[in-house]
Amino acid sequence: MSYCVNCGVELDATASFCPLCHTPVCNPNQPVDETSPKPFPTERKEVPPASKLQGAILISTILASVAVCCGVLNYFLRTQRIWCLYVIGAALMIWIWTVPPLLHHKKDTFRLQLLADILAIAVYVSLIAVDLDGWDWYWHLALPIILLLGALFFFWGLTLGPGKRSTLTSITLVVGSIGVFATGVERFLDLFFRGSWSPSWSLIVLAVCVILIIPLTVVRRVPALREEVRRRFHL
Prior knowledge:
The protein is mostly helical and 235 residues long. 65% of the residues lie in helices and 2% in strands. A hairpin with a 6-residue loop joins strand 1 and strand 2 (10-11). Helix 1 packs antiparallel against helix 2.
């Protein structure tokens, strides 16, 4: 058994240099064994990345299995409610959210993928409406809110991409979008339940958003304030 004369680490019989400090090994009483295999890999190798197609097939198989099993159980149990639609819709929604982006992760498909995500949510809620026999609230309440939310996400995706806007501008746009969304939600709720729109709580949300937007706009317009905010908050 040999030891490195420089750092004292224990050396294997096949070592021609110290693996820790790279000092050459010179031991006349124990020549280097050049026939035995090395105790460690001599070539650097990397684990190959998993295939995206295989990952997509695995996710699809799992989701399809869950959906089919729940559908079969719902059929044989013969319950009055079609509860399997919740699971099938959730599986379909998760598949649309995960598999297409995994296979086609490109910037030019962003709009199509976002549209597919919003449609997936709309389809899932429609399956809930089928089970609850609630097409009235679906068409007049749920679907308008989903489309409004989808429009805001589409707006954020087009305007808040990396390098498109500064952090202050992005915060300003998001705050303004929250006020618009709250106003739209209250409008849809009032029209569905009362038949007329009388804004109340959404005005408070909108007022708070406006109060936040004004100083943010001032900071964006004044270079000295903008640099001070960026320095203090690391924006």
